[in-house]
Design brief:
Blueprint lengths: L6 H27 L5 H17 L8 H46 L6 H16 L3 H11 L4 H8 L3 H18 L7
Helix pairs in contact: 1-2, 1-3, 2-3, 3-4, 3-5, 6-7
Length: about 180
């Protein structure tokens, strides 16, 4: 009856699994995701997906256990998707803040008396440069800005000093092309 669009039957169907699924949702969300996703919102999303699947006859809900199992699986997948999105956003935010720090610090190293348009163009080229850096190059630059010597950077990164020297040379050339003086590295 629920697959024919009878709202009373759909309501009764949802009542069968709602309590158990809400408990599963609360447990799966835990404290890290609770500020970003509410268990009631998650349950409503499961209702919508489940009812659409039942209406399209994509799901086998021949027993109450299968219904609860399907709803719990949907909750697990929705929480996992939200967690992946949350972690991706954190990585993007951290990378963006590190890039912004590098852009700001590199911009301060260059003493240029130019107009706002030239400064904006310079800042854009610095941003492009910092976005194009590998994680190793970014770490090398950050450590150098913190005052580490090339030998200390090589030791911290577990690399041979010769390899670091080659990378520094390439990085220095890229900085010079952007207009950043390389005397400090």
């Amino acid at each position: 009856m629920a697959n024919s669009g009878d709202t009373d039957a759909q309501f009764q169907l949802c009542q069968q699994y709602e309590k158990q699924v809400r408990i599963v949702a609360r447990v799966l969300l835990g404290s890290p995701l609770r500020p970003y996703l509410d268990s009631v919102d998650l349950l409503q999303s499961v209702h919508r997906s489940l009812l659409a699947g039942i209406r399209d006859q994509r799901f086998d809900i021949s027993s109450p256990e299968k219904l609860v199992g399907l709803a719990c699986t949907m909750v697990r997948r929705k929480v996992a998707r939200k967690w992946r999105m949350h972690r991706r956003q954190i990585r993007l935010d951290v990378a963006e803040s590190r890039n912004q720090f590098l852009v700001t610090e590199l911009s301060l190293l260059v003493n240029r008396e130019v107009g706002p348009a030239e400064q904006a163009e310079f800042d854009n080229s610095l941003t492009r440069l910092c976005n194009g850096l590998s994680e190793l190059e970014r770490t090398m630059l950050m450590r150098r800005l913190e005052g580490f010597t090339m030998g200390e950077v090589a030791h911290d990164l577990g690399m041979q000093p010769v390899a670091i020297r080659v990378r520094w040379t390439r990085l220095r050339q890229r900085l010079e092309e952007t207009g950043v003086i390389s005397d400090w590295i």
